[in-house]
Amino acid sequence: MAKFELNSILKNWSIFEISWLVVFFIIGIILNIVWESDFVSTLAFITGIFCVVLAAKGSIWNYAFGLINCITYAYVAFHSLLYGEVILNLLYYLPMQFIGIHLWMRNTTTDKRIQMKELTLSKQIGLFAITIICVILFQQFLIMLGSTYTGLDSITTVVSVVAQILMALRYKEQWLLWIIVNIISIIMWTLAGNPIMVLMWTAYLINAVYGYYNWNKGAKLNV
Question: Transmembrane residues, as ranges (predicted)?
Fold first, then answer.
């Protein structure tokens, strides 16, 4: 990965995008104080926000923040008995950060943005069928582990795995899957009683909608 420079990360950002990032960062800090959230939850929130916003921009720097987020989020999930989330982050997301860095570095444009693509209809249908089967099988595994909210946990875990693969391969459809994951995660963390995580996933949801909009434009430019 290139040398860390703030200007390289924020290059070609609009006022709206910078404001969006700053606002949620400030909200996270304020709510951490008000709700007396633990440090790890707050760190997971902050790194997560930076990660998804940079991903929506098509910036390879999203993986740097993603590495930290994988570890901190897994810690929070473990203490909430959401073992599917723990497995997802430590055994899948974490190594996928390095794979993503490698693949994105091989497919960047002259301004350091990645080349975006879209799936054909037949691939979308096949992907949907495989995802449904995996959700059912993984839920049974979580039941054996004694996890809580196995249905929701299974959907978020499996769909996240598929979305992360699409992200590494630079397909815009990843954002439709992230929207599903974000909605279910909001419900799951509300039930788990962790407000800072609810806020984080709400921010993710808003960002995913913008991410799809931005990547849809990018994919059309690369046709």
Answer: 12-33, 39-56, 63-81, 87-105, 125-143, 149-168, 175-192, 198-215
78 found inside a domain: yes
- Whether residue 2 is contained in a domain is answered as no
Q: Please give the tally of structural domains in the chain.
A: 1
**Is the separation of the CB atoms in 153 and 137 below 8 Å?**
no
| 71 occurs within a structural domain | yes
Radius of gyration of the chain (CA): 17
Tens of pLDDT, residue by residue over 4-46, are 455 556 667 778 778 878 887 887 778 777 777 788 888 888 8
pTM: 0.78
Sequence letter at residue 175: W
Domain that holds residue 192: 13-108+115-221
Give 32's contacts (C-beta < 8 A, 6+ positions apart): 41, 42, 45, 196
The single-letter DSSP state of residue 4 is: P
- Positive or negative, the CA dihedral 131, 136, 141, 146 is positive
Cα–chain-centroid distance for residue 120?
Answer: 23
